[in-house]
Every structure is written in C-alpha cells, then in structure tokens.
Fold this sequence. Notes:
mainly alpha, Leucine-rich Repeat Variant, 3 domains, two-stranded antiparallel ribbon, 2 strands, 69% helix
Amino acid sequence: MAKRSVFILALLVSIWVGGCQTQEKKIPKLIQDLGHDTPSFRWMRTTPREIAKKKLGKMGKDAVPALTQALSQENSNIQNGVIDTLASIGKDAVPAMIQLLQDPSVQSYATAVLLKMAAKESVPGIAQILKNGRSEFRSSAAEILGRIGSEDIPKKLIPKVESGSGKYFEFYFLLSDIVSILKEALQDDVPNVRSQATNSLIQIAIVKKIPEAINAVLPVLKQALQNDDAVVRSQAANTLMEIGTPNAFQAMLPILIQALQNEDSTIRAKAALALEEIGTPDALKAVKEYESRQ
C-alpha cells in the first residue's frame, strides 16, 4: 500500500512538473512531435502531429522563431509538420517567411508555407516568389494571387514585416499592385507561368472589373480569338462577354460579324444574339444586315 502511494505521488509530481514547464521549454518537444503523423496507440483518434500543431498554433507568434529554425532540420517529416503549422499560424508567421525567402538553404520551405497559407497577409511574400522563385513556384504564386485578388480584399493590406535591423516597416499592398505583378508575369520566360498569370488576371477582371486587369488581358484574349483551336477561341469569346466592357465587346465584333457568315445556322444564330446583347450601333447594324439576308 505504501509503495503504491509513493508511486501515485511520484506520478502526480511528474504531471505537476510537466504542467509547470514554461511555454519555451514545451516548444522543442512539440516540434519533435510534428514528425509523428501516425497515432501513438491504435485506440487514439489523433496523431502527435495534430496535437502538437494545435498547441503550437495557439502559441502563435511565440512559436514562430523555433518553428523557423526547425525548417533546417534534416527530418522531412518534421519539416512537413512545421510547414503545416506555420501556414496555420497565418499572418504572424508572414514576416519570418519573407525574411527566409532571402536564404537559399530554406527558401523552398518558406515558399511552401506562404503558398499553403494563401492568405491576404501573405501577398507580399507571394509577390516575391512570383518575381524571383523557381518556375513551378512562380506558377503557383500566380494562381494564388488571382484567387486572393478576386476575393473581397480591403483596399490596403498592411502586414508588418521585420527588417534586418529588428525594426518594423509596413508593406502597403493594393489590389492594383497584385494586377501589376501579374501583368509583369505575362512576360515570364516559362509558358505555364504566363498562362497562369493570364488566367488570374481574367479571374480578377471578371469578378472585380478592375480596368488595369481588363486592359492587361484584352490583348491576350484578342489573340486567343484567332487561335487554331476552336475550344480556345470559344473560351476567349465567353470571357470577353463575361467581362462585358465596351473594349471587350469591341474586341468581339469582328469575330461575331464574321460568324454571321458561318455555314452552321446555330453558330450564326448565336452570333446574332451575342451582337444584340452587345447592343452597340455597329453590332446592331450587323444584325440588321444579317436578318435582311434571311
């Protein structure tokens, strides 16, 4: 009985000591747990990684320095867990990730965090990736910027970014800045990056009706209307109709008027309907002439 009491007392003491550990001392153990993505016991419904990720996420910015250092570990399971955790922490991890983009040894991990985060606060970092990252990362960055840019974002994004001196300065990011970055990406050396930048600008142009985005994609869409692939031509035409600005309609006119001469009566009818919807004097004149020939 006495031995049992001593054992229980020792167990309680160990639990109490563990509970009294400072947050700083708990972090290394939690980071190691991020490397274990299978349950410790069969009856457990969660994994050590999930538990550690939740606890570190609650710590927020206090856990970021240690997590950032852990990206240099050779254990890929821990690295993957750290990436997930930093992405879940969100805006408090952005400044550190932007700093890491300058370090070739961990640049790819910082990139992975920012892309996985895909948050408004990560725009400055994603913009850097699109300008300076590897081609596969640039393509992902262009896609994410389109997704963020077409959402209801505020006029200014002001995440605070820590400089090398330890002071803070502010990034002011406007939606027009996102458009400008994507426009630059239209000149990228890699076709896939250019294609994704175009798709993102189209997405922003349709959802937000931003003139800069519309003006950036109109030349691309006009060129697509002449593509040999009928599917590409159709997608370009549908996009221009969705954009719905006078310039977009004007780009459509020559193609639609030409379609009024098509051998397929269905194509002629659809072209006439589209011209009526555009409703400009030139469009209506073409429809009137078409109807007079029927």
